[in-house]
Amino acid sequence: AIYNFGSINLDHLYQLDHFVRPGETMASDSYQCLLGGKGANQSVALAKAGADVKHVGAVHKNDAQILAQLSDLGVNTDLIAKLDVPTGHAIIQLNKEAENAIILFQGANHALTEEQVDQVLAQASSEDWVLLQNETNLIQYIMRQARAKGLKVAFNPAPMDAQLAKEVLPFVDLLIVNEVEAMDLIGVNDVDAAIDGLPKAYPELAVLMTLGKAGVRYFNQDQNLFVEAFSVKAVDTTAAGDTFIGFCLSALMDQLDMKEVLTRACAASAICVTRMGASSAIPSISEVNEFLAE
Length: 294
Ligand code: ADP
Fold this sequence. Notes:
By secondary structure, this protein is of the alpha/beta class. It has a single domain, classed as Ribokinase (UDP-N-acetylmuramoyl-L-alanine:D-glutamate ligase), CATH 3.40.1190.
């Protein structure tokens, strides 16, 4: 199984003429409430890829509909705590220029306790993976405990906090970053320098670097692979990275060869960018197989 210790957010989206100004009250005639958070998106991608995914996190105790939604998409929600803390959420204003202004409330996403982590990891076995992003608390604690149990750790340090990422990289088996995150992490402004610097600084680490419409690189001290992205008409790249991660980890758990793993993940994220939305844009494994057969 994959234990994804990740965020669950409700994204409240409002379309407006312009962003609300100080002292102003503005009515919006367009409102959408969508399930989001990198953690939840990656769990959905894992489930759609066919993986056995257990999401570990927390929501407010009255937000049972979120758990039902995740569970309908194939995510195991037994390890999601129901707390007396508001569910993590984002208030997103979208103006006419398609720019956004966002208030993020972390809420329950930062309410994980060491006891909850210990209980979860006590039931994991050595073939299991632990996946983390950077939208929840106790990251270092979870990684240390997971490593001590012999579990594999995958880390997608988004949003990037270079200080934290550097502290925890010794506990990580697979690092998944985009180009900007990789450069921020090493403190360089050149992608090749990051590709060179990461395996030197962390010899044990395997790195997956997604390169947007160019594709993806996978490298460690002795391997360097590149897989080109599929050429599609992109309309919305939201959740492309999350889709990539889900399909990639799922294929890795199926012990596929690395080139095959990357090709599948590229196909899944190529389909994702042709559709609007976040979790709703993530394809199923059968759609990915059909795409690859074309
Ligand atoms: P993030 O969204 O995390 O920044 P990327 O932009 O690197 O991640 O995208 C992740 C993956 O999605 C890429 O490795 C690629 O396979 C796929 N992808 C992203 N944008 C496109 C695109 N325009 N066309 C085809 N595939 C894309």
